[in-house]
Amino acid sequence: MAPTRPPSVSATFLRDACVLGLLAAIACGLASCSTHTPVSTPTSSAAPGKRLAWMLTRAALSQMVTDPTVRTQLEASPVYEILQPGQRPLATVGAIPVVTFSAVGDLEQAVTGNQLPAGTHAVLYDPEVWPYTPAAEQRNPAQAARQALDIAHAHGLKLIVTPALNLATVQPSSGPRWQQFLHLGLAGAIAKATDVIELQAQSLERQAGTYAEFVRAATAQARAANPQVSVLAGLSTNPPGAPVSSQQLVAAIRATSGIVAGYWLNIPGRGPRCPTCNAPRPDIGRQVLREIS
Predict the structure, then answer these.
(1) How far is CA 50 from the centre of its chain?
(2) Which of 46, 89, 134, 234 has the highest Cβ tally under 10 A?
(3) Model's pTM, two decimal places?
(4) Which pLDDT value is given to residue 50?
């Protein structure tokens, strides 16, 4: 996911399960789990009192755990630490390492070349219209996701796919980009080829109603195509454009937490992958996590 991207699951979750499941834990000692253990991923339907799953980059996670209240919350929640190739996990709050790639070829090289850190349970494929995803994969992200899924499963890993809304511009139609994404059926097509799909809805988060409309429709499309898929949604503390507040993010969460299993909370830094991002706002991220605890 671009850093509007860039680029108990607590310790108990891993101790109790050699799994990447987003909402459940079963018994097994972490020390006895192999690095690439085949796992099952339950669906992300709402349940009373469920703990939301959180995906955070390594940098974002390090910024969140400086707050004792937030750290305690994350220790009791499923947490997925998103790593760039070559990064080592922080080994905090029991977070599960997930390594991200924007091209299937890079993913394949890392997986088949034993280049993933110990404890990695999933790889993330982030197709977008940008220089880091090959043009052929931009034109057919579902086919590329299927290739990534085959590679991941052959090595005992789960796959997370995070398709950007700008993939709709490859086959442009009328209406807002999020509606084009739905009209093209991208959520459904990609859901057939992944264990987890994360909807990059963060550009819509300023309006909770629009955010919820997209997340609800895309989730329904994904689950119709693959009833077993887990669905996450994207948020950002500092996307391009007008500044956002913690209240806006909390409103988006409250409008959709019964629909999805959790969220990728982005705290992007300015750089080649997000040249128009505003300055990072980890304080907003911490406030969001405190408000929904």
Answers:
(1) 18
(2) 234
(3) 0.85
(4) 72
CA distances from 148 to 2, 103, 280 (A): 18, 9, 31
Residues in contact with 42: Cβ distance below 8 Å, sequence separation at least 6, in sequence order: 21, 22, 23, 24, 228, 230
| Fold category of 41-291 in CATH | TIM Barrel (3.20.20)
CB 212 within 8 A of CB 245: no
What pLDDT is recorded for position 208?
A: 98
pLDDT digits (tens, 9 = 90+) for 143-169: 999 999 999 999 999 999 999 999 999
Rg (Cα) of the chain, in Å, rounded? 17
Asked whether 77 and 51 are in contact (CB, 8 A), the reply is yes
What 8-state DSSP symbol labels residue 140? Answer: -
**Alpha-carbon span 67 to 142, nearest angstrom:** 39
If phi > 0 it is left, if psi is from -120 to 50 it is alpha, else beta; for residue 213 that is alpha
Torsion of CA 184, 1, 77, 159, to 10 degrees: 70
Of 250 and 49, the structure prediction assigns the larger pLDDT to 250
Query: 3-class DSSP state for residue 82?
Result: strand
From residue 245, alpha-carbon distances to 12, 146, 282 in Å are 32, 37, 12
28 CB-contact burial (10 Å; exposed 0-12 / middle 13-18 / buried 19+): middle
The three-state secondary structure class of 187 is helix
Q: Token pair of 76, please?
A: 């009791």
Q: Where are the domains of the chain?
A: 41-291
CA distance 82 to 97: 6
Strands of 27-126 (E only): list them.
53-57, 79-83, 96-101, 122-125
Is residue 86 exposed (0-12), middle (13-18) or buried (19+ Cβ within 10 Å)? exposed
Contact 245, 36 (CB under 8 A): no
Model pLDDT for residues 263-280, shown as the tens digit of each residue = 999 998 877 888 888 889
